[in-house]
Design a protein that fits this description.
Strand order of the largest sheet: 3-2-1-4-5-7-6
Radius of gyration: 15 Å
Number of domains: 1
Number of helices: 6
Helix content: 25-40%
Order of helices and strands: HHEHEHEEHEHEE
CATH architecture: 3-Layer(aba) Sandwich
Mean pLDDT: 88
CATH class: Alpha Beta
Largest sheet: 7 strands, mixed
Structural class: alpha/beta
Length: 183
């Protein structure tokens, strides 16, 4: 994400339009990703870079009424769409979060699981990105990171270079990460 400015409004609207077309031709296809993450009832999950919220309904179902999904994004229009979706779909366990320069404002060690899908190619400062997500992840938390529109090699290099996360698996299309522990 262009953390200083966020995605432009026009860029966001174009992305949303593209997702809507893809989802029309392959409904539900995108939400199957979440089923493989091991999300449990009662979990606290962060959808980092949530965009228009295409994964929120499924994530809210998976965490159940005792869980919580933070829909986090730098784009105010994304959070406007998320708020509308919360009302329309009665998602009482979803909370929108505006990210400002990699600062989510979320509590330390709050997340059981974080997923960042189709957005990492927009991160200008991977070290700040990974540091913030490590801060909010529980010690035994996990993160699923999708390469987005960049090579797996570049994603792996960024993860390893940050020192904040370790790679548990590199199965396509995600990296499964866990917080690096100090020795």
């Amino acid at each position: 994400m262009k953390q200083g400015e966020g995605m432009s409004n026009i860029g966001f609207q174009l992305m949303t339009w593209t997702y809507n077309i893809a989802d029309f031709f392959r409904p539900g296809d995108f939400t199957e990703k979440l089923e493989n993450f091991g999300i449990s009832k009662g979990d606290v999950v962060i959808d980092y870079g949530c965009g228009p919220g295409r994964y929120l309904k499924k994530a809210a179902e998976l965490v159940g009424e005792d869980g919580l999904v933070y829909a986090a994004d730098t784009q105010p229009l994304a959070l406007k769409k998320v708020r509308s979706q919360i009302v329309k779909q009665q998602l009482q366990n979803v909370e929108p979060v505006l990210i400002h320069r990699y600062d989510s404002g979320l509590a330390d060690n709050c997340a059981d699981l974080i997923y960042a899908l189709d957005m990492f190619h927009q991160v200008d400062h991977p070290d700040k990105f990974f540091a913030e997500l490590k801060r909010v992840a529980k010690r035994d938390g996990i993160m699923f990171l999708e390469d987005g529109h960049q090579s797996r090699e570049m994603t792996v290099k960024s993860v390893k270079g940050s020192g904040h996360w370790k790679i548990d698996s590199t199965e396509r299309p995600f990296l499964k990460l866990s917080p690096a522990q100090l020795a």
